[in-house]
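Q: Entry one of two.
A:
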Amino acid sequence: AAAPLDRKAQKERAKRVHMAEVLRLHDKRVQVEKHRHMIEHARLEKEIAEEEAARAKWDRDILREETFVAKEPFRTEASVEREVVRNKACVAHIKALPLGKDLPMHLIF
């Protein structure tokens, strides 16, 4: 009478082991799927951040170029004025020197 109970208990134990294995595999699949979704979400977030950074850089570059173009005439004008003042000062300095003093012969006029 003990043998059929043992066989029955073994069948029940085998079913429990089998169900435990099935549940373990199911949990593993769920974890893998969650992990896959998490990685995909992180990848998408990274791509979005990169696109936003690229757009911000593009906007900054456009603004910098517009500012440069807007201010360039003023810079050029100021540069020309400085060059004229520098040349006048140089000519005045050279004319103020006594003739033949510390100048090469080809600069004496």
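Q: Entry two of two.
A:
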Amino acid sequence: ADVRKLSGGTYGYDSQCLPYLFPISNGLVPYRMYCDCWQAVLGDLSGPFGQRRSRIVGFVNPERLDVNYVPSDLFNGHGGDLSSMRLLPRVGQSALDPLVVHWAGSSGEQ
């Protein structure tokens, strides 16, 4: 709404990435294509990563505060081990301190 109003209707989000959230003919969901699309649109609407601005929403720098930490996306084969997910310290490696841990894809190992 902010960008559409300021640009006189030239820019805005028209759900162009939505089709990538549904399975294609082979049954797979092109999630990577969705992520690439969304990042491109987000950059067009609010600026590049680290410099995004909006009068409507605020942006949290994920390098300072990860509000959607998904261990299964970052550390394959963790086997439910909190140290392998960097949620507990290891020798020579401090633990990460996410605000929220999102257990998606952990197959009940949490």
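A: Comment on entry two: The first helix runs from residue 2 to 6. Helices lie at 2-6, 31-46, 71-74.
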